[in-house]
TrEMBL record:
One of its GO terms (biological process) is DNA integration. Residues 106-271 form the Integrase catalytic domain. NCBIfam families: transpos_IS3. GO terms for molecular function: nucleic acid binding. InterPro entries: HTH-like_dom, Integrase_cat-core, RNaseH-like_sf, RNaseH_sf, Transpos_IS3, Transposase_IS3/IS150/IS904. Involved in the transposition of the insertion sequence. This is Transposase InsO family protein. It comes from the Bacteria.
Length: 275
């Protein structure tokens, strides 16, 4: 900027004076500053609806249409949403197919009553891949356990369940864990682990993604907001990015259907009301 001012022979003090004066004359300057701060904080992941909810959570009163207009003025646009292919672990019938207990009834008023899981694939720099196995509580969309591996082995899926089990054991009602028909979830190790812990098993019907839409939506969201459009990195760096994102998703990323709270905020708020 200094070089530009020198070329046009404009003193730097004059430039800053006129810029500050312009800002002070803009009646929406403070709103734009708040909106820009939120947009940058969430790394461009928030559109105008979520920005509006975040402003409300901060105690500000502003119409959502005004937020949309100001974001257009600032040329702020959420560009994280593109669709890509997904990992499929189905390898034909390899065991007993469990009943679809959820039957697309994803909502629940009770924490840890309905949990869903899946395996998602990421490409790393070079020839490596990363596989993610998260378990999500449908009560508030919180990721309660997960594991990552360079190969989609049975052990890595069992590890994700083991990580989530201490949380599941706190459930007030008997838990149901829902998955697709991936081979991991047919395996006796998975089936027996659920039975031993008095957990109901539920499975989607073959080639019916909508039966596990909640988990599919999380996987898509994760990739859209921290993976697609980014430079491919090593397995270890991608693992760190996913860990940071899941922490952000659980603790900071607000959901409109959770009254503008993050999953953890919603769970904490509900427990305080119950107490």
């Amino acid at each position: 900027m200094k070089d530009v001012l020198k070329i046009i022979d404009l003193p730097e003090a004059t430039y800053h004076y006129h810029r500050s004066r312009s800002d002070s004359e803009d009646p929406d300057h403070e709103w734009k500053t708040r909106i820009l701060a939120l947009f940058e904080k969430h790394k461009g992941r928030y559109g105008y609806r979520r920005i509006h909810s975040a402003l409300k959570a901060q105690g500000h009163v502003i119409n959502h249409k005004k937020v949309q207009r100001l974001m257009l003025d600032l040329k702020l646009k959420c560009v994280k949403f593109i669709r890509k292919s997904r990992y499929r672990s189905y390898k034909g019938k390899v065991g007993t197919i469990a009943k679809n207990r959820l039957n697309r009834r994803f909502n629940t008023a009770y924490a840890l009553q309905k949990i869903t899981t899946d395996v998602t694939e990421f490409k790393c720099a070079g020839e490596e891949k990363l596989y993610l196995s998260p378990l999500m509580d449908l009560y508030n969309g919180e990721i309660i356990g997960m594991s990552m591996s360079k190969r989609p082995t049975l052990e890595f899926v069992m590890e994700s369940f083991a990580n989530a089990l201490p949380v599941i054991e706190q459930a007030a009602y008997r838990t149901t864990v829902h998955s697709d028909q991936g081979w991991h979830y047919h395996h006796p190790s998975w089936v027996n682990a659920l039975k031993q812990n008095r957990i109901y098993q539920s499975m989607s019907r073959k080639a019916t993604c909508a039966d596990n839409a909640a988990m599919e939506n999380f996987s898509s969201l994760l990739k859209q907001e921290m993976y697609y459009g980014e430079e491919q990195v090593s397995y270890d760096k991608l693992k760190q990015r996913i860990e940071r994102y899941v922490h952000y998703y659980n603790n900071e990323r607000i959901k409109r259907k959770l009254a503008g709270m993050s999953p953890v905020q919603y769970r904490t708020h509900a427990s305080q009301l119950a107490a």
